[in-house]
Write a structure and sequence with these properties.
Number of helices: 8
Largest sheet: 8 strands, mixed
Number of domains: 1
Shape: globular
Structural class: alpha/beta
Distance between the termini: 27 Å
CATH architecture: 3-Layer(aba) Sandwich
Order of helices and strands: EHEHEEEHEHEHEEHEEHH
């Protein structure tokens, strides 16, 4: 099985998240050290922590890139972070206002990371793979990147994307993209804080009727809707 995660942070080695990481928890509960794992992280300071996270797995690629949309031509990108987000600065974004939103009174620093657009990422690292789980958490750029993925070209069974920063229009477009490509909404995604949506490659008319409601309601009601899905 192949598991892919973009925006891996420090894995399960960050004390500020109580050493929890939804992606590594998902993979490790498979209890199979031969699983193929590809993780991508823009912050070079987190690579050693990712190596620690995955030290018991034989088939792991840890890539130090900022994954960007197809139309990005820069070879390096400036990413902002807050000094108060230590020690691993997992809230990393090309949009300084995104950082200020969470750390309004903090000093904001930046780093430069090499870029790899999403099309070339799949071409270079995921060609001919059947991907059991693909997840992305890149602090504000998730929508653009996922919209650039050709879902007909790659065999991806489950896709988990953070919904927290999506506008109503982005939510509608994202849901429509998945439905049009034979995916169905399947509740919360991999993040242990329940801030991801999960879409599974299958057709479920009822699940997608519920998905159509998501852009119009507050996220506090998502849990209730997901309970309905489990009963269907």
């Amino acid at each position: 099985m192949n598991f892919v995660h973009i925006g891996a942070g420090a894995g399960d080695k960050d004390p500020s998240s109580n050493f929890r990481d939804g992606f590594s928890e998902l993979v490790k509960k498979q209890n199979n050290k031969s699983i193929n794992v590809i993780v991508v992280e823009a912050n070079p300071n987190n690579i050693k922590k990712l190596e620690e996270t995955w030290k018991d797995f034989r088939n792991v690629k840890i890539l130090n890139f900022a994954i960007v949309p197809i139309n990005t031509t820069l070879s390096k990108i400036k990413l902002y972070y807050s000094e108060d987000d230590g020690p691993h600065y997992q809230l990393l974004s090309k949009n300084i206002d995104h950082i200020k939103r969470y750390f309004p009174n903090s000093k904001i620093n930046h780093l430069h990371a090499p870029t790899l657009n999403i099309k070339n990422f799949f071409k270079n690292y995921c060609k001919n793979l059947t991907i059991e789980s693909f997840s992305i958490d890149v602090e504000g750029a998730d929508f653009e990147i996922v919209m650039d993925i050709d879902l007909n070209e790659y065999d991806i069974k489950n896709i988990s994307i953070e919904y927290l920063h999506l506008s109503k229009i982005q939510k509608k477009k994202l849901i429509n993209k998945f439905i049009e490509n034979n995916y169905s909404y399947n509740g919360f995604g991999i993040d242990h804080n329940d801030i991801d949506w999960l879409f599974t490659k299958k057709k479920s008319k009822w699940n997608n009727l519920i998905a159509k409601i998501l852009p119009y309601i507050h996220r506090i009601h998502y849990k209730r809707l997901n309970k309905i899905i489990k009963k269907l």
